[in-house]
Design a protein that fits this description.
By secondary structure, this protein is of the alpha/beta class. It is built from 19 helices and 18 strands. It binds ligand NAX and potassium ion (K). Homotetramer.
Length: about 525
Amino acid sequence: MLTAFSGGDIRSAEAPLLDAGQGDALMQRAAHGLFGVALGLLREAGRGTYGATAVVLAGSGNNGADALYAGERLLRRGVGATAILTGDRVHAAALEAFTQAGGTSVRLADAPDIAALAAHAASADVLLDGILGTGASGGLRGPSADFVRAFDAAAGPRAARSTLVVACDLPSGIGVDTGRVDGPVLAADATVTFGAAKPGLLIGDGAVAAGELNVVDIGLDLSGFPPAARTLEGSDAAALLRLPGTHDQKYSRGVLGVAAGSARYPGAAALAVGAALATGVGMVRYLGPEAVAALVHQRNPEVVASTGPIAEAQSQAWLVGPGAVDDDDQRLRAVDAMASGLPVVVDAGALAAVPARVGPQVVLTPHAGELRELLAARGVDTERSEIEADPAHFARQAADITGATVLLKGYTSVVAAPSGALFVQADATPWLSTAGSGDTLSGIIGALAATLAEDDGAAGRVGVAPADLWAAIAAAGALIHGRAGRRAARSGPVVVSDLPGPIRAVVADLVEERRLAASP
Ligand SMILES: NC(=O)C1=CN([C@@H]2O[C@H](COP(=O)(O)OP(=O)(O)OC[C@H]3O[C@@H](n4cnc5c(N)ncnc54)[C@H](O)[C@@H]3O)[C@@H](O)[C@H]2O)[C@@H](O)CC1
Ligand SMILES: [K+]
């Protein structure tokens, strides 16, 4: 599990070490970690150190000092380095060390031509971004903002540029705790963050700007601080799965009831059911119009279908809503499922039927537009773009108001538990943004919920509080879905109806990972 702590908590954890006179030692560890990643990237790109060039962007705080000390180390390896001092102050000892090692420096405020300086930076092999770290308030401003814009114009987009950008602690310009990007930001190839990840590196636009994330241990003790966000890794999803045992039968493995699809959108039911079966479940009971059931059966004859109410279909968990629009029976099933006390995954058409208060076992899976409507119906007016800019804030707000677990879909999927716990998954590929993708995600989460509903050991296996089990299940669903999408995309654009194959393969890998973890 990757655990992020707020910028404020990281600074609090640093305080006792600073009081003990360890500030410089911390900074040297940070600089060493940054240097190591920059060196690794240079080598990976087939560029050695001798003859290579680096530009260090150094702001007025300790972030700039870290970058200058990393620059010093590059200089001692034969890299030619220039520092651009972006603030009105600079850490004197760090600049002295950089200069002593042969580095030259220029003040951005004195530069006659920012575009020329940016073009120089864009011709370097590596750029260390030490403009702003955890001390940032707001986005980049003034000459720093102008410089980053000019650099982007000169270097081109990240995928195409030749300069490797390594962010010191975080890409300058992102919200440390939110990932919010309001102005220019230097999109990094890699970010080297110190002590622990910060939430902004995992969420939304901040996660995109961070590139590959490296966490460098600098000896902070964060054990007394609450995680601000967590990301499940494969081993966590593997630990969470409930594997069938010798005494299991279809009912004990978990039955998922699915009230999805309607005359208007029959396909959503088939997609959700296919994904649920591929994730692994004892049985799927389908409730809905006969014509939709016929479509489900064409692909999955093992599904047990009926047109009755949910009270007549015993299940361990429910999935309601995919493709269920303009259908009173489906709406009633959604309402009854949410009132049953059982775990329920609530998607698309059923989101409008969520009552005032539910429990954390009700997992809502809106996209930003649906979340906007859900919040508006509860008196919170906001724009879709605002939700996309700060997804964790709005997912949390929805969880807080409704009592439900809220998975907000996006490039990074954010899961907020009503306890305040937050999970963020960045497993997906843009190839998954295609019609029907959400139906398969809800099917995966539904299957996990059905198999784990009566598994008392599940929260312990993944290391979360029992109240946050549903959020962990949703996060694991996003992980499986994202990995399946990536796997599918290896052989071309993702066709959602083909996703069950890759989902099964991803689950097979997780089962194998679990087996390896258990064997001595
Ligand atoms: N917290 C820790 O445990 C450690 C922190 N270290 C480094 O220290 C950094 C934090 O250092 P600081 O507290 O000095 O903070 P920063 O280096 O992030 O910068 C703060 C300075 O930038 C200015 N500033 C703030 N927002 C600005 C904006 N939007 N535009 C322009 N200027 C702005 C402020 O006036 C302040 O002087 C971390 O990110 C990390 O790189 C490391 O040296 C090692 C240990
Ligand atoms: K930075």
